[in-house]
Amino acid sequence: MTARTIRRALTTAALAAALATTALTTTASADTGRDHDRHAATRAMMEAQVKAGVPGVLGQAQDAHGTWNASAGVADRGTGRERLPQDRFRIGSITKSFVSTVLLQLEAEGRLDIDDSVEHWLPGVVHGNGHDGGRITIRQLLNHTSGVFNYTEDPAFFQQISTGFLEHRYETRTPAQLVATAMKHEPHFTPGKGWHYSNTNYVLAGMIVEKVTGHSYASEVEKRILKRAGMRSTTLPGTSARVPGPHGRGYSKLFATAPDAKIHDVTELNPSWGWAAGEIISTTGDLNRYYRALLRGDLLPERQQRELLTAVPTSDKPSSDAGYGLGLSTGKLSCGVTIWFHGGGIHGSTSMASGTPDGRHTAAFNFNGDWAGDPNALLEAEYCGAKPMAATTGTSKDLKKLTSLR
């Protein structure tokens, strides 16, 4: 991770860990020569990430030909264990679309309107230094056009989750504390007059879910999404520092930039600092299950599905295809394929979940490191067959910008 990466969001950008192991293991539901050829570029790109320093890469793709699982590198630098398809990992900001989907379901039930003001549901919470919850809508929270300051960009908070991580890794932060940190600063811009990725938006969104339902946002996600989509390996840990088994280890250099910087095992951490903006733990299989159900419209009525996939521009370039819906990014790959996706990063884990607009082709990946590598290149490889020239090549500029929202 870079300082800019974690300041701008939970989703990470660059990652890796220096390991010599580059062996790739694959299994597939239809493990034929044709199937191997179909994913050859993805397998090669996964190997390239490990050669560039990522400890281990885990991936799964699902399409009309079946389910394909692959791994490269290791899950544990100490034992050399390979990464397994059932391994769990922290998904960071991929959490955001779970929250937006619950809010859209509540709208469909007539319990709120996503154009309600934040002040209506959370009176007095978004206030101070130019913030005004009465001028911000739920929709603007979900598509990051609210202008609300991003609490992970607060210098003191950033120090605690970066160079101060080892000292603060088990501390609990409440949603109210996270929002209060943001309120110490001026907004990024007037509501509706710009775009800035802000984790505070989704902490507020989680608070609104709880205000409307009277239940924890985690229980609503479990009931409304995990059970309906059959996601049996996905959990919302709250303040628990553990990752349920099976899982590999997560590694970080804690923002040290020297090539020989110490690699820390950061598997255990209290994820309450991310809460509804990035606490979920999942698997590649469950993420594909979720994206397939979400993009096919299995979780939302037609009207709310349109709202979910109505994107605002994230680039000031007129020719850009980059956009952000309600908890999902969209972009066009170099081969012309349009996908919906989201990156997710938290200490020791960098993830990517994606799917074509019809949900028929999905792919999810995870790196168990947070300072090198390029998950965007894996999307190019999987959907376009782009072959790696290096571990960080192969991604369109618009898509790279979208997945650098962290």
From TrEMBL:
Keywords noted in UniProt: Signal
Signal peptide: 1-30
Family matches, as Pfam families: Beta-lactamase
This protein's record includes keyword Cell division: no
Domain Beta-lactamase-related: 46-370
Stored SUPFAM superfamilies: beta-lactamase/transpeptidase-like
Residues forming coiled coils: none
PANTHER family (UniProt xref): D-ALANYL-D-ALANINE CARBOXYPEPTIDASE, D-ALANYL-D-ALANINE-CARBOXYPEPTIDASE/ENDOPEPTIDASE AMPH
Protein known as: Beta-lactamase family protein
